[in-house]
Write a structure and sequence with these properties.
Shape: flat
Order of helices and strands: EEEEEEEHH
Oligomer: single chain
Largest sheet: 3 strands, antiparallel
Helix content: 10-25%
Mean pLDDT: 80
Structural class: alpha+beta
Bound molecules: zinc ion
Low-confidence stretches: 84-89
Amino acid sequence: MYDSRCLNCGETFTTYRRMADCDDLPECCGVTTARVYSVPMVSADIAPYQAVGYDKKTGGMPFITSRREHKEYLRRNGYHEVETSFRSRNEVKGDFDMKRDLINAVKKVTGH
Ligand SMILES: [Zn+2]
């Protein structure tokens, strides 16, 4: 999650990007907005899972590896998320290292 501000009109924006795309900021007044630095907010992606419903697109049950895939899969098949499929914030599991990501995000923002 990255905040930016238009240096021309002062409008502020919050954008959601992968860390690699953090410089891909919105435009306002015809120019790219400037990053506003704040405490990094890193949201873990969902843990990969094997879908248990058929996908119209492939006819099979896809292996879902990201929140985006999860949402697109639900949307195109008319499926609805039920509350039990959410993980609580303290119960995040998966093949990622949030501490490392936070350290890298802080390094990127502060330059050291
Ligand atoms: Zn503007």
